[in-house]
Amino acid sequence: MAETLFFNALREATDEEMARDETVFVLGEDVGHYGGSYKVTKDLYKKYGELRVLDTPIAENSFSGMAIGAAMTGLRPIIEGMNMGFLLLAFNQIANNAGMLRYTSGGNFKIPLVIRGPGGVGRQLGAEHSQRLEAYFHAVPGLKIVACSTPYNAKGLLKAAIRDENPVLFFEHVLLYNLKEDLPDHEYICPLDKAEVVRPGKDVTILTYSRMRHHCTQAMKLVEQHGLGYDPEIIDLISLKPF
Fold first, then answer.
1. pTM of the predicted model, to two decimals?
2. Which domain holds residue 165?
3. Which of 12, 129, 134, 214 is catalytic?
4. Residue 44 resides in a domain
5. Strand intervals (E) in 120-228
6. Is 111 part of a structural domain of the chain?
7. d(Cα 177, Cα 186) in Å, to the nearest integer?
8. Is 191 a domain residue?
């Protein structure tokens, strides 16, 4: 077991999958030399080179289309969005190409693509840096959507997303990046279509995900400290759109 920061768990998952499968590559703004805006891709450029860790221009629509084309040819791209709020600049590519191509091509194309990056409200950094866009993409056919909440499920879910044959939107909350957790030394995968019961209970079920999981568990500690006798079940959805 090793204590691992949230963002390093994401980095470990990416590194391990790139080592396991040479078709996996990363692209995005500042992912190469700089190591990513939050250092999730730190040192991967040195290890795998410029053909597998690609710095892109500030042109989300363009490099999203490039990644989709690469996925159509059998590669497994991982797009790192500098911030997930900028996905709206590539909405057409993600919705009409990544999501729908498997259907519009009659099943002739698979799009094994991961789009991941930081986001989340609560930082007062303006529209492009303080949003959650899950609802925008929820109606798009063909997209899977997950939201990680701990270092453990961040690593396991990202590995599963990279191996999936469908496009996966992978939402991370930037205010969780410094969260620490002991991770097992052995390899593990977390399924993309399962929720997690964080706390069993019998009075009511609270459905939550991402950073709000931790707010709910903290609130329950206060309830228990004050002896209120309230026994809710807390479920972390994790999978916001499993198919």
1. 0.94
2. 2-183
3. 129
4. yes
5. 144-147, 168-173, 180-183, 196-199, 205-208
6. yes
7. 22
8. no
The total of structural domains in the chain comes to 2
Among 12, 29, 60, 80, the one annotated catalytic:
60
pLDDT in tens, 164-205: 999 999 999 999 999 999 999 999 999 999 999 999 999 999
Domain-embedded: residue 162: yes
Query: Is 60 a residue of the active site?
Result: yes
Identify the CA nearest to 80 among candidates 55, 46, 99: 55
Residue 107 · residue 204 · CB < 8 Å: no
Residue with tokens 């949003």: 131
Q: Last residue of some domain: 152, 183, 214?
A: 183
DSSP 55-92: E--S-HHHHHHHHHHHHHTT-EEEEE-SSGGGGGGGHH
Share of the chain above pLDDT 90, in %: 84
Provide the strand spans (E) within the chain.
2-5, 24-28, 53-55, 76-80, 114-119, 144-147, 168-173, 180-183, 196-199, 205-208, 233-236, 239-241
Cα 81 from Cα 188, distance rounded (Å): 25
CATH number for the domain harbouring residue 45: 3.40.50.970
Confirm if 164 and 145 have CB atoms less than 8 A apart: no
Q: What is the DSSP letter of 229?
A: -
Q: How far is CA 149 from CA 26, 76, 128, 201, 213, in A?
A: 22, 24, 21, 20, 7
The domain that holds 230 is classified in CATH as: 3.40.50.920
Among 158, 183, 208, residue at a domain's last position: 183
Handedness of CA 91, 162, 80, 211 (dihedral sign): positive
Three-class SS state of 100: coil
Provide the pLDDT confidence category of residue 1 given band limits of 50, 70 and 90: confident
172 and 122: one domain? Answer: yes
